[in-house]
Amino acid sequence: MRKSNKKVNAAIIIIGNEILSGRTQDVNVVTISKWLNEMGVNLEEVRIIPDNEYSIIKNVNELKRKFNYVFTTGGIGPTHDDITAKSISKAFNLTYGYHTKAYKILEKYYGKAKFNIGRKKMSKMPIKASLILNPTSGAPGFIVGNVYCLPGVPSILKSMLGGLKYKIKGGKKIFSKSISIRTVESEIAQPLEKINRNFKKVDIGSYPFFKLGKIGVSIVIRSSDKKEIDVCYKEIVDFLKKEKINIIENK
């Protein structure tokens, strides 16, 4: 992966009626965001949209102009409601059809006798797209411009990210540290704001949680400057100890 000194950003489009209906819980955002941090890419927006051609085209066209990279998940399978590939072809005004290389990969994977219509459909995409190889189940994802199309099945998606390592031009790696404490947000809001003003390169967030019948707060700090984040982390820990706020976990 090539590194850039510029800030590099990305968005994710989660495509699927099953996510919006609550039947399926999305975990792909967590997987992709952690991977992007390692690549030095800031995830700045996530949208969840239905399996609807107009919605896919509209959102892809909006985000591809706004961000360096756009990742889509879902809708590239063998069923009638898997319309992502066709919709993205339309978004880019590209010919949709059987991708020669993808077709050969799937034909070899399944064997000619078992290469049915549904499986053939997974090789239909913009015919000039670059492929994202799939080491788990054969069916490739694809890349058009700055849009990277991945499957919705979490284990398969995760296995395909490694193949994108040298296709992404990221910035500096994004470091993060977290501290879980036994208190409420109102007790630490002003001190955290004061600390944050002294560290312009660090993002500090606080997130309440409820576990085992007790309330707590997770403080998460993120930065591409390792030295800055270490100093900020120490200042927060020192403040917590001074105020005798119980630290449950820090990492």
Kindly list the characteristics that best describe this protein.
alpha/beta, about 250 residues, about 35% helix, Molybdenum Cofactor Biosythetic Enzyme, Chain A, 2 domains, 9 helices, 6-stranded mixed beta sheet
| Order of the strands making up the biggest sheet | 2-1-3-8-7-6
Estimated share of beta-strand residues: 25-35%
Low-confidence runs of at least 5 consecutive residues: none
CATH architecture of the largest domain: 3-Layer(aba) Sandwich
Shape: elongated
N-to-C SSE string, H for helix and E for strand? EHHEHEHEHHEEEEHEHEEHE
Helix content: 25-40%
**Describe the biggest sheet?**
6 strands, mixed
Q: What's the number of domains?
A: 2
Report the CATH superfamily of the largest domain: MoaB/Mog-like domain
* CATH topology annotation of the largest domain: Molybdenum Cofactor Biosythetic Enzyme, Chain A
Please count the beta strands (DSSP E, at least 2 residues each): 12
Arithmetic mean of pLDDT: 93
The structure class reads: alpha/beta
Radius of gyration: 22 Å
Distance between the ends: 27 Å
Count the helices. How many? Answer: 9
Query: What is the CATH class designation of the largest domain?
Result: Alpha Beta
Q: Please, could you describe this protein's structure?
A:
- With 251 residues, the protein is of the alpha/beta class.
- It has two domains: 159 residues, MoaB/Mog-like domain (Molybdenum Cofactor Biosythetic Enzyme, Chain A), CATH 3.40.980.10; 76 residues, Alpha-Beta Plaits.
- The protein is built from nine helices and twelve strands.
- The strands form three sheets. It has a six-stranded mixed sheet, with helices on both faces. Strands 10-11-9-12 form a four-stranded antiparallel sheet, covered by helices on one side. Strands 4-5 form a two-stranded antiparallel ribbon.
